[in-house]
Amino acid sequence: MKEFGCLPDSFSYNTILDVLCKKGKLNEARDWLLEMKNKSLMPNSSAFNILVGAYCKLGWLKGASQIIELMWENNVLPDVYTYTILIDRLCKEGRIDEALRLRDEMENLKLLPDVVTYTALINGCFECSSSAKAIELIQEMERKGVKPDAVIQNILVSWYVKDGNVDDARKTIRKMEETGVSFNTASYNTILDALCKKEKLNEAQDLLLDMKNKGLMPDSCSFNILVCGYCKLGLLKEASEVIELMSQSNVLQDVWTYNILIGGLCKQGRIDEAFRLQDEMKTLKLLPNVVTYNTLINGCFEYGSSSKAFGLIQEMESKGMKPDAFTHSIVVKWYVKNGKMNDARKTIRNMEESGFSSNIVCYNIILDVLCKKGRLNEAKDLLLKMINKGLMPDWCTFNIFVCGYCKWGWLTGAAQVIELMSQNNVLPDVCTYTMLIGGLCKEGRIDEAFRLRDEMENLKLLPDVVTYNTLINGCFECGSSSKAFGLIQEMERKGLKPDAFTHQLLIKWYLKDWKMDDAEKTIRKMEESGFSPDPAAYNTLINKYCKIGKLGEAFRMMDEMERKGLNVDNVNLNSIIHILFGENSFMPDVFTCNILLRMLCRRGMLEKALNLFNTWISKGEKVDAVAYNTIILGLCEQGRFEEAFDLLVEMKEKKLGPDCYTCNAILGILADAGRVEEAEECMSKIMKMGQLQDQNLLLDKWKIMSSQTPQVSDPNSIAFSE
């Protein structure tokens, strides 16, 4: 510049400072700053701020503080920008208290924090889980006349969504829109994503339409979020409707859209349709990427088309597309699943020889199988080989070992793994502690399990429902029922709802202690909470009632199971039949006995059903048409038509029928079996009985001859019973 007769000014030096800082040459930048001073060209606040910003970007807060001291020495006052840079860095490092002290220092210097300062502080508070302080800062800035902008509102919306408060996020958007703040598509997409993850797809669809009504055009990301939500729930028809809406809105489908749909089809085993979608992509000039191929490869392996899967790997390689770590993990997983451990290891070796870095996921898959099979020494050797190759275990690797050691009762080994985790700066998580607690509970070491739970909480690791269930089960198994009930109350106080397994543990304990009333109450409570009781709970309850002679209660529970579509096990059926055939004064009513007959016939236990039917009659009990119909159908299904017809005659004599439903059922079974002549003969016999008119038979001669099966009414229906 001197050659051209002009001297560099502050702007020239600031430009060079900026370039040097962007390249990370901070020492040179500092020298330039001192050179400015030596040439009597006093650096301004912008020059100092460039250096402060560079030091903060690299996290060198000590260096940034030294530059600020230099500012004071040169009588250059730090401005709002200087303080905001420092505050932002402190917030990113989680040093919120220091950031807030700097904010106070600003105000003492009559420097008013602007919207950028508040943005840094608010975001920092949310990131450090100080949500109350963040809300307080928003209220403070509004009091001071600093209007929250879209960035702050987006931070607020994102936090609400992250915290699961989707309704509050939507209220925030409505409130801010009323005050004139415009939200962009990204904010709406954040809420759309949260709604879809919570499976509130109708609300998500309404929000999408709401966006359009407000003139805010949903982008491909908006539609893809909704498509993904439907596909995850297996609602592919609804996903296709969203894609149709996408086309109507002139938003083009992209590779992500197709990948989501292909994934949805593969999950349902509709591999051929997934391949057709891949072909459709090619016609639209959308090139399938590694994710597309991985999705198809995984789908083929899952549904038995391994040759197609390997063909896809060759296809992607022929197109210059390298299989990634996930591709290799899919192949390794398939080999392991099919017991081909040597091939799995060979795949990892080939991967490494081909220049791929070792993949922790692949190793974890093999380690998991070895640990589950109790081959712990072999797993340990593989772990050492892994470490020697420079591949460090992650928390998943360590948890696999903890789980393996606990499963096989080697708790000392599990404790050593925890120690190894600490040495490798890998923190144990809730899952790690829960597995250890489970191992201790299995050995009856309840007090140690509780101490581990306390240790978790001291490390700010909150026990989840699985942790509590593990402890509750351990307490019940060791006879500490009071502790178990105390844990249930504790988890409810902490806002954790007992799940299906918690209820099942309670039911199991009540039944073990012969507290049938309490077990039934827990079943009712379980249903009220939206869980389906395990059939085993009902069957155990029935078994207990039988053992203490409360057959009425047993039948009541059997009836309930029948209505809910749950199967009574054969042990209970046999127990009840044995009691009924013995010297027992109890005889069930018509309704209950019909349930028993139906259950026996459905299980193919016809002889026992006939014995019960005949015993019932021999004891002088009144039978109804439903009982006859059940036995008649059972006989027909086993080809015993003569006996069935004898019962038809007996029904007529007792004036219980038969009606057209009974007859159609018999004729239908004959027609299904292709026994046309016997069907005609049976129909002729029925007509001779004089009970039915020709027009009443739903199965006429033409239908028999053409082997068409009539619609047989359910023998349990009201009409059939009538």
UniProtKB/TrEMBL annotation:
InterPro entries (alphabetical): PPR_rpt, TPR-like_helical_dom_sf
Similarity annotation: Belongs to the PPR family. P subfamily.
GO molecular function list: mRNA binding
Organism, scientific name: Jatropha curcas (Barbados nut)
Protein name: Pentacotripeptide-repeat region of PRORP domain-containing protein
PPR repeats: 9-43, 44-78, 79-113, 114-148, 149-183, 184-218, 219-253, 254-288, 289-323, 324-358, 359-393, 394-428, 429-463, 464-498, 499-533, 534-568, 589-623, 624-658, 659-693
Domain of life of the source: Eukaryota
Transmembrane segments: none
Keyword tags: Repeat
Pfam families in alphabetical order: PPR, PPR_1, PPR_2
Taxonomic classification: Eukaryota, Viridiplantae, Streptophyta, Embryophyta, Tracheophyta
PANTHER family: PENTACOTRIPEPTIDE-REPEAT REGION OF PRORP DOMAIN-CONTAINING PROTEIN (PTHR47938:SF46), RESPIRATORY COMPLEX I CHAPERONE (CIA84), PUTATIVE (AFU_ORTHOLOGUE AFUA_2G06020)-RELATED (PTHR47938)
UniProt xrefs under SUPFAM superfamilies: TPR-like (SSF48452)
